[in-house]
Amino acid sequence: MKQIYLDNNASSPLDPRVAQAMATVMGAKPGNPSSLHSFGRGARRLVENSRSQVAALCRARDDEIIFSSGATEANNMALYGLAACAKTNQRQILLSPTEHPSVLEPCKRLAAKGFELIWMKVGPDGIVDLVDAKAKLGPQVAFSSLMWINNETGTIQPIEEWANFCAENDVLLHSDAAQAVGRIAIDLDSLPLAALTMSAHKFHGPQGIGALYLRRGVPFSPTLVGGGQEREKRAGTECVFGLFGMAKALEFAVAELAQRREKVSALAKATLRGISAANIPFVLNARAAPRWPGVLNMQFEGQVAESLLMKLDLRGIAVSVGSACSSGSIEPSLVLSAMGLGVKENLSSIRVSFSAMNDSSDVDAFVEAMTEIHDLSR
Ligand code: PMP
Q: Which pLDDT does position 323 carry in this prediction?
């Protein structure tokens, strides 16, 4: 049975060109980048060249990139790191209920330590209400956090307007851009963000490597300590071949931004046409929002999303339910709940996410499988 991967927002396949480049580094000399001998200096060069490459591709400065084990760690270190340096009279964090658990959970811990979480209002398509958010941005707000592109729905938040407003009001803004970096152009030189999270496996890079962009001069306290790496901001020996792969993957992603977008957009449109033509009733969630075109979050009336996922899996097709990090549970998606979906609509929603490595035969197979499942359940 041919296996079809339509869960690219959970993790995208490693680009073979990246794998090949990484293999040359993995098979090369040993060396800890912190060692002073020539082996160490060789490893250090790989780290610093990769850092420069990642920085340049996001229009950041080299010393603003802190490598991490991925977006979860970058989010944790951003939130704890900014909170630790907040002024004593600034004890509020302004965030959206549609954030990833790796933002929500650290914020809940901060709430247990005396911070107050101020929730942004979210419309039916998952877009934050900036009129409401602006009114909530008082002098007690230490920082705000707003995801750039939502992992479940593809909703694109008005980051530019929010970043400018926060900057005008001297409030730091962190953005979880795990689903945005490598997919849309990121210009950190012109966007006044304090911090931004990225993760390589979302843009065909290796898993277990990511970075936090931290603007020069932003007060920050490290979470991982016990080594001077990453300019004292994240202790621990760097994942040299991982960050090398991340830089390579980002280089390809940025060079191919437009063509990848066009490809996933065409695949998503073909999917919508296919299931409509097969008369399978569905509702596209967040349909009116500006969205990343490569993800479809769809309700299939009368279906239980978890069992639909399993039925598709039996036919070799991988999709997901809610956030990948919480799949396996039948809790309704927090993102869809925040958008106002009822429990029934929520629990009948699946996420299909494409990458440029998919092709039209994957769409055909998905539509065919959905038609079969729909016919059997009638
Ligand atoms: N934030 C978002 C928006 C994500 O989509 C993900 C991946 N599910 C993460 C954070 C966590 O990323 P990582 O797997 O790199 O820790």
A: 42
40-76: pLDDT as tens digits? 999 999 999 999 999 999 999 999 999 999 999 999 9
Domain boundary among 226, 255, 284: 255
If asked whether residues 178 and 108 sit together in one domain, one would say yes
- In angstroms, the CA 366 to CA 315 distance is 9
Could you tell me the pTM of the whole model?
0.97
**Pick from 375, 358, 290, 289: which is nearest to 319 by CA?**
358
**Domain assignment of residue 160, given as a range:** 16-255
Return the structure tokens found at 6.
Answer: 């339509």
178 CB within 6 A, ligand 1: yes
Distance 201 CA to ligand 1 centre (A): 9
Strand partners, 350: 298
Q: Which among 69, 156, 179, 202 is the best mutation to test ligand 1's pocket, defined by most ligand atoms within 8 Å of the CB? A: 202
Kindly state whether residues 175 and 271 are assigned to the same domain: no
Q: Which pLDDT tens digit goes with each residue over 194-229?
A: 999 999 999 999 999 999 999 999 999 999 999 999
CATH number of the domain residue 213 falls in = 3.40.640.10
Q: Say how many domains are in the chain.
A: 2
What average pLDDT does this structure show over 272-279? 98
